[in-house]
Automatic annotation (TrEMBL):
The keyword Lyase applies. GO terms for biological process: fatty acid beta-oxidation. The keyword Lyase applies. This is Enoyl-CoA hydratase/isomerase family protein. Keywords: Isomerase, Lyase. Belongs to the enoyl-CoA hydratase/isomerase family.
Amino acid sequence: MTQPSPLSRVQHGIAWITLNRPEQRNALDVPTLKSLLALLDAYEADAAVRVIVLTGEGRSFCAGADLAEWAEAEARGELETYGWTETAHALMRRLHSLDKPTIAAVNGTAVGAGMDLTLCCDFRIAGASARFKAGYTGMAYCPDAGASWHLPRLIGGEAAKRLLFLDELWNAERALNAGLVGEVVADDQLQVHAGEFAARLAAGPTYAFGHTKRLIREGASRTLAQQLEAEQAAGLLCGRSEDAAEALCAVAEKRSPQFKGR
């Protein structure tokens, strides 16, 4: 029986989403995009989920758009209208805008929209064999799933142009040196390390994490005065949270706080 794509499970507050089309190198067809979007909506609304980890089954994280599906749509004369771009954009916006912390555990190659999925996450942990490739200009195409927005902010304008224009294949070490990923670990330790990192986040004040994510996301379009005002408003909400009360009690009682994310 064919396994559904993607796979998902929740364990100890951590939601694991695994792209599961290994024979297609986890390429993103429209059904997979829609399934991912539905999972993210469900996990954002689920109080039991504190952190989300995205990874891939097999030797590739994600090969990007499913070009076989694209070819079929082109043969029908529907390439521009069959909905891949709109669905992919909805997914990227949702992943980027989640309040809960997100981690991409990158196993193998991340190409095109597959790389863009990792860029929408808060943290990127790469296995030693991970590879990153924009893939767009090699197909005489331009970025279409957020790379032109994320890359200059993560690695700077010139490095972004090098990755996009020259369509270079960056190994994990180069990605780390450029700031494209935060950590590189041995392949056989990737899932364990990502799980341990996710557990640290899940034990934290995730309500405050959500406000912090929004402040960072929205701060680039504000003046300092506007950002300070936004920080004050968010700080008042955080200060009224159960987690803030627990933090004060823990200090008074000289123990570690037990945060609930509310």
